[in-house]
Write a structure and sequence with these properties.
alpha+beta, Deoxyribonuclease I, Chain A, 24% helix, ExoIII-like
C-alpha cells in the first residue's frame, strides 16, 4: 500500500498539478493539507474522475484537509482533533482504509513567535500527543501523517542557524515533536534514510528550490503495528519544480499489505 501526503497549498489553484501527479504515481491513499477552499468548493468530481474517492474538511481561505483513496473503501472516523471544542480550524481528519487508520493533519505554523499563534501551536501539539496516546492504546495500525510544521533536527533544514527564531524550529515545538515520537511512533523517512538530508518544502523566494535550500516538515509517524511493514519512503522532489506548483513536494511511504 502506497500512502502519500501533499500540502497542496490551494487545491483549486493547484488542481492540474495534483491530477498530473496522481496520474503519474497512482498512490493508494493521499492525505492533502492546505486545501484553502470551503467545503462546497472541493473539486470532488475531478478527483472521482481521476479514480479516487475523497473525504474532506474545508475552510474558507485557510487550512483544510482531505483523504483520497483509490481501490479501497474508506470509513471516516472523525474530523476534529479532540481536546478543544472551541477550535474551529480545519486541521484534522481520520479514516479507516485497508484495515489501517489514516490520520491526516495540518499542524499550526505558530509564527510569529512568541505570541498567541505560537501558544496555539503548542496547545495543539499537546492535544495531538494526548490523542496519539489514545490511538496507541487501541492497539491498531495507525499512520499519523501530514504537514507538522516542525523541523525536528539540524539535519532537516538548510542552514539551521537562520531558523533559530522561527516557530518551526524553536526548542519548544521540537521538544513536543520528540515527545510525540517518543510515545512509540516510527518516523518513517528518518528511519529508512538516517543520514540523508531530505527536504519536503522549499520557499518560493530566493530560488530556494534551485539551491536545494529546503526543510523537512512533512512527516509519517507509524504505530508499532506498522513499523515492520515499512518497505520504502521518499519525496517526489521533481513535482516541486513543475509550473504553478505547491511550495511542498509530495512525500510517500510503501507498506506491506495487512495479512490479518
Amino acid at each position: 500500500m502506497r500512502i502519500a501526503t501533499y500540502n497542496i497549498n490551494g487545491i483549486n489553484a493547484r488542481l492540474p498539478v495534483l491530477l498530473r501527479w496522481l496520474a503519474e504515481t497512482q498512490p493508494d491513499v493521499v492525505c492533502l493539507q492546505e486545501l484553502k477552499a470551503p467545503q462546497e468548493n472541493f473539486p470532488e468530481q475531478a478527483i472521482l474522475e481521476a479514480g479516487y474517492q475523497a473525504i474532506w474538511l474545508g475552510e474558507k481561505s485557510w487550512n483544510g484537509v482531505a483523504i483520497l483513496s483509490r481501490g479501497h473503501a474508506m470509513q471516516e472516523v472523525r474530523n476534529t482533533l479532540p481536546g478543544d471544542d472551541t477550535d474551529t480550524h480545519s486541521r484534522y481528519i481520520e479514516a479507516i482504509i485497508n484495515k489501517t487508520l489514516i490520520a491526516c493533519l495540518y499542524l499550526p505554523n505558530g509564527n510569529p513567535a512568541p505570541g498567541p499563534k505560537f501558544d496555539y501551536k503548542l496547545s495543539w501539539m499537546k492535544r495531538l500527543q494526548e490523542h496519539a496516546r489514545y490511538l496507541l492504546s487501541e492497539d491498531v495500525p495507525v499512520v499519523l501523517v501530514g504537514d507538522y510544521n516542525v523541523i525536528p533536527t539540524d539535519m532537516d533544514v538548510y542552514k539551521p542557524e537562520r531558523w533559530l527564531d522561527n516557530a518551526l524550529f524553536m526548542p519548544e515545538p521540537k521538544a513536543e515533536f520528540a515527545a510525540l515520537v517518543g510515545q512509540g511512533w516510527t518516523d518513517a523517512l528518518r528511519t529508512l534514510h538516517p543520514d540523508e538530508r531530505i527536504y519536503t518544502y522549499w520557499d518560493y523566494f530566493r530560488k530556494a528550490y534551485d539551491r536545494n535550500a529546503g526543510l523537512r516538515i512533512d512527516h509519517f509517524l507509524l504505530s508499532p503495528q506498522l513499523a515492520g511493514r515499512l518497505r520504502s519512503a521518499g519525496v517526489d522532489r521533481h513535482v516541486r519544480g513543475w509550473e504553478k506548483t505547491s511550495d511542498h513536494a509530495p512525500v510517500w511511504i510503501v507498506l506491506d499489505d495487512p495479512t490479518d
